[in-house]
TrEMBL record:
Binding-site residues for heme, renumbered to this chain: C593
Organism this protein belongs to: Micromonas commoda (strain RCC299 / NOUM17 / CCMP2709)
One GO MF term: monooxygenase activity
Name of the protein in question: Cytochrome P450
Segments of skewed composition (Basic and acidic residues): 201-220
Length: 651
């Protein structure tokens, strides 16, 4: 009861009654008795929860953070600490212990909930498959995302998920591909402008620096910019990728680009003679990205801190006030997207669906009428979330879309900068496939026409299929393996999760129904039971050629399942391997990411364009280890904001 707003209200009401009826003496005894009862109940539950995993997996105490501010950079690498703890359990000297803990897991008790931290691929899949209920930890996201698809449960979640998937299917992928190409063209135009400024500062000459930079939809390589000299520039790519990704995500969801929506909003403001000044697109973007950056660290940090114990206390704290301010700022752009959404867009589809109707007042499935009313009142008083399910969903989709994809692309650039050979191979593979280049919005010249005349079978665009540009796909998959989009996924188990005994003689392990399981995807993707040389960046592990199609291929362990299954390719002789059960960057099971197929489209388009336009190098004076230091929040981003050195290709 203490953990939620209804519990806090009940305690306050009881205290008020005691004070009015019995005076201060009765109030003091009532408070003391209440504290004793709560402490006894909590201790009993904690002991019982600890016995759930006794003898099965190692147990560690839960130490919530005393969080009074948000750290811009990590003090310690949380992901490495988790991986080391799991590796220590697996690789112990005692053979029995090693076999018992082959599942790479350890336990703790969060409050009064038994919680298993999972880093083994087999146990992770068992914990996520057929588990539709999220962990209570996700309540920390409700203030921002309301009860959208990310936090909803039960029938409410099922209805909203169905409508979101239907909206994406109705809109199709073509509008997203076009928006991605425009965003990528705008990004390279900005980079070229900075390169041109750097060249002018050195007294060098160059052709028209922005030469038709934003003409068309990205069909002119790097926007038609001619770079005659080997000028290099260092820049932070993460904020630039965040802005470009936000533009593409907004355009896809609303069916109209952000500058057009902002201009229409400004025109309406002038027509209505309001006092609010017109806001250009850049102002909308700046406000949203600044708020999202804080929320990206603030919301998940609260879920690991003492503030998770009371909504009321958190709402009154300095961090609670900061969060409310950032939430108000971050929800203005989704509101604009809803007002600007055109017929046929995903948001327009959701607007007409019953699960996202503004008249739908029910919160979580199974909640009482009083509980829903009180939760709505509490949110209204402290400006947490909303009672508009459509706005909740727009907020969820816009935030998840821009944040996850920009983070992945940032890591991809850093990984390629640290591996020049892989970068050259990727660039050459694209240049040698004119059809893929053309479909990705890159200049292919006469080669594309000649290639199209020689192909007899239909070729899907490279942005649509993993087979379209195999080396590009391999680089993205390997980036997502080492740097999964969201590092942590939690579920409340509604049935037992069973990981069978391994071929090495390890014991089977059952996580009982009722406990929570937190899957650390960073550890799962480095499980030595599945991956050979798991910490190395090796895109070739995802590729097979006709010459080794029957073999294991470099990079995969013989213990990995389904590795012989491969997909067709637009590039003759090279194919992409089946992902396998140990790869789950977008989670798996019924609560897997609904937008993962959209993310692949955008990332393929943008990474291909950047790699074909620039040679990416590590920033001067920075080693690869320093560049790969993570900042852990809602997503894992580079702590150095993906600072790299860009050199024009062919300059």
């Amino acid at each position: 009861m203490l953990a939620g707003a209804p519990g806090t209200a009940a305690a306050a009401a009881a205290a008020s009654v005691l004070a009015l009826e019995g005076g201060e003496h009765a109030l003091a005894w009532g408070v003391a008795l209440y504290v004793i009862c709560v402490a006894t109940w909590t201790l009993a539950d904690a002991v019982g929860a600890r016995l759930v995993f006794r003898g099965k997996i190692p147990s560690v105490p839960w130490r919530p953070n005393l969080m009074f501010n948000v750290y811009a950079t990590p003090r310690r690498n949380l992901l490495d600490r988790i991986s080391r703890r799991m590796a220590a359990a697996r690789d112990g000297n005692d053979a029995t212990t090693k076999h018992r803990h082959r599942h790479r897991a350890f336990a703790t008790v969060v409050g009064n909930c038994p919680f298993a931290h999972v880093g083994g691929a087999a146990l992770a899949r068992a914990a996520l498959d057929r588990q539709p209920v999220k962990s209570p930890l996700y309540r920390a996201f409700e203030a921002f995302a309301g009860v959208g698809i990310f936090t909803a449960e039960g029938d409410d979640w099922a209805a909203k998920r169905s409508e979101v998937l239907g909206a994406f299917a109705t809109a199709g992928l073509e509008p997203l591909a076009a928006a991605s190409m425009r965003a990528a063209a705008g990004l390279t135009a900005e980079i070229d402008a900075q390169l041109a400024a750097a060249a002018r500062g050195k007294g060098e000459t160059r052709r028209s620096p922005l030469d038709d930079a934003e003409k068309g939809e990205g069909g002119e390589g790097r926007g038609g910019v001619g770079l005659e000299v080997d000028t290099a520039v260092e820049m932070d790519m993460l904020p630039r990728l965040q802005r470009a990704t936000l533009r593409a995500t907004f355009e896809y969801l609303a069916g109209v680009d952000l500058p057009t929506a902002a201009a229409a909003e400004a025109g309406d403001a002038l027509h209505d003679a309001t006092d609010q000044p017109a806001r250009p697109a850049g102002v909308w973007e700046d406000e949203y990205l600044a708020a999202a950056t804080d929320l990206r660290a603030l919301i998940p940090a609260r879920a690991r801190s003492v503030w998770m114990l009371s909504d009321w206390a958190y709402a009154l704290s300095p961090l609670g006030r900061l969060e409310r301010t950032r939430i108000r700022e971050a929800r203005r752009l989704p509101e604009l997207a809803l007002r600007a959404a055109v017929p046929g867009s995903p948001l327009d589809h959701l607007r007409r669906g019953p699960a996202h109707s503004r008249r739908r007042l029910a919160g979580r499935s199974g909640g009482s009428i009083f509980g829903d009313w009180f939760l709505g009142l509490f949110r209204g008083l402290f400006r947490l979330g909303s009672r508009d399910p459509l706005l909740d969903e727009a907020t969820t989709l816009l935030f998840a879309g821009h944040d996850t994809q920009s983070a992945t692309l940032s890591w991809a650039l850093l990984r390629l900068a640290g591996d020049p050979a892989a970068q050259r191979e990727l660039r050459a593979s694209l240049a040698d496939d004119p059809a893929a280049m053309e479909s990705l919005g890159l200049a292919a010249g006469d080669k594309a026409a000649s290639a199209s005349t020689t192909r007899t079978e239909p070729v899907q665009p490279a942005w649509r299929t993993s087979a379209g540009a195999p080396v590009l796909e391999a680089c993205l998959r390997e980036t997502l393996r080492l740097h999964p989009v969201a590092p942590f996924v939690a579920r409340k188990l509604t049935s037992d999760a069973v990981a069978s005994a391994g071929a090495d003689g390890g014991d089977a392990l059952t996580l009982p129904a009722g406990c929570a399981a937190g899957v650390w995807l960073h550890a799962v993707h480095r499980d030595p039971a599945v991956w050979v040389d798991p910490d190395s960046f090796d895109p070739s592990r995802w590729l097979i050629t006709d010459s080794n199609a029957g073999g294991q291929g470099a990079g995969f362990s013989p213990r990995a399942d389904s590795i012989h299954h491969s997909q067709g390719s637009n590039t003759p002789g090279v194919r992409v391997r089946f992902k396998g059960s140990g790869f789950m960057p977008f989670a798996t099971g019924p609560r897997a990411c609904v937008g993962q197929h959209l993310a692949w489209v955008y990332m393929r388009v943008v990474l291909a364009r950047l790699v074909c336009a620039y040679e990416v190098r590590l920033a001067e004076g920075e080693g690869e280890g320093d560049a790969l230091t993570p900042s852990v929040g809602f997503t894992v981003t580079p702590a150095n904001a993906a600072r790299v050195r860009l050199v024009p290709v062919g300059g």
